[in-house]
Q: What sequence folds into this?
């Protein structure tokens, strides 16, 4: 069975470049046998990430769906505010967390054994 992997990576700032990187991280998850879920690629298609209330609502949706995922994979060298909240929620739910560089090299893992 393929695990559902929540993909966390930076989005704000250079959103075009960050979205392209997130798509690459999703391809990486697939190559490792997972099913990627990247809410920061989904919600900005119909919600305004630059509008505070819309961004908060999108993050609320994402955090609710994190509960349906098997693991959280964190990509990149910088942790944004949204990513920090995703990591905190995953820890609270005791989900395994794996950390990767922006080049998809694993740098650390945390959480229960599979």
A:
């Amino acid at each position: 069975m393929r695990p559902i992997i929540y993909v966390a990576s930076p989005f704000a700032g250079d959103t075009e470049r960050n979205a392209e990187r997130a798509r690459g991280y999703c391809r990486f998850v697939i190559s490792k046998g997972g099913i990627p879920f990247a809410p920061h690629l989904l919600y900005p298609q119909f919600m305004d990430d630059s509008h505070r209330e819309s961004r908060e609502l999108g993050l609320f949706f994402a955090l609710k769906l994190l509960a349906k995922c098997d693991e959280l994979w964190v990509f990149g060298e910088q942790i944004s505010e949204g990513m920090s909240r995703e990591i905190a929620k995953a820890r609270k739910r005791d989900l395994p967390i794996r950390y990767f560089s922006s080049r998809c090299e694993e740098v650390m893992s945390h959480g229960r054994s599979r």
Observations:
- Helices lie at 15-31, 39-42, 52-66, 81-92.
